[in-house]
Amino acid sequence: MSIHLDEVWGPGPSLLPPVDDVRANALFEQAAAVEAVTFTQPVAGAINEIFYKRLRGLTPDMGKYDEYIATLSAKLDVYDEILGRQKYLLGDEISLVDLLHLSGGAALGLIGSDIMGQKPNVARWFNDLSSRESWRVLKDGIVGSA
Questions:
Q1: This prediction's pTM
Q2: What is the spatial distance between Cα 129 and Cα 97, in angstroms, rounded to a whole number?
Q3: Whole-angstrom Cα distance, residue 103 to residue 96?
Q4: If you write DSSP's letter for every residue of 106-144 in order, what string do you get?
Q5: For residues 98-132, b (16+ Cβ closer than 10 Å) or e, as one string?
Q6: Residue 7 pLDDT > 50, yes or no?
Q7: How far is CA 57 from CA 14, 48, 61, 98, 127, in A?
Q8: pLDDT tens digits, one per residue of 17-27
Q9: CA 51/CA 43 separation, integer angstroms
Q10: What are the residues facing 91 on neighbouring strands?
Q11: For the chain, what percent of residues have pLDDT higher than 70?
């Protein structure tokens, strides 16, 4: 869905690689798949243990939570290495793959995890992403003027 929105949404910089750049598209698809499996799965597990279980009146399993965070930490070691060589996951230009990490990374902070700030290059990257005006407006809610 995010890819479709980028393709059809009005003016502004694209967050996708050029259609005719086969290598860039392959790297994009690979990174998007890695995000879905490597990042989103442990993030969703950790959020479920802390937030959704409490919301349903259940007791979180802190052992499971710690396992999810440990798994994520190991994956973020690889991110940290990549981000030590370049500004964003696919190079020096922001892409949709970077932005796909925003909601999960922010939610981790809301449940009390500081994992996104523990590795220097990941912290720099995530702070860059989360300080963008568009994210702040979305995160803080849209304030109407009517």
A1: 0.76
A2: 11
A3: 13
A4: HHHHHTT--GGGSSHHHHHHHHHHHTSHHHHHHHH-PPP
A5: bbbbbebbbbbeebebebbeebebbbebbeebbee
A6: no
A7: 43, 12, 13, 34, 33
A8: 666 766 766 66
A9: 12
A10: 88
A11: 73
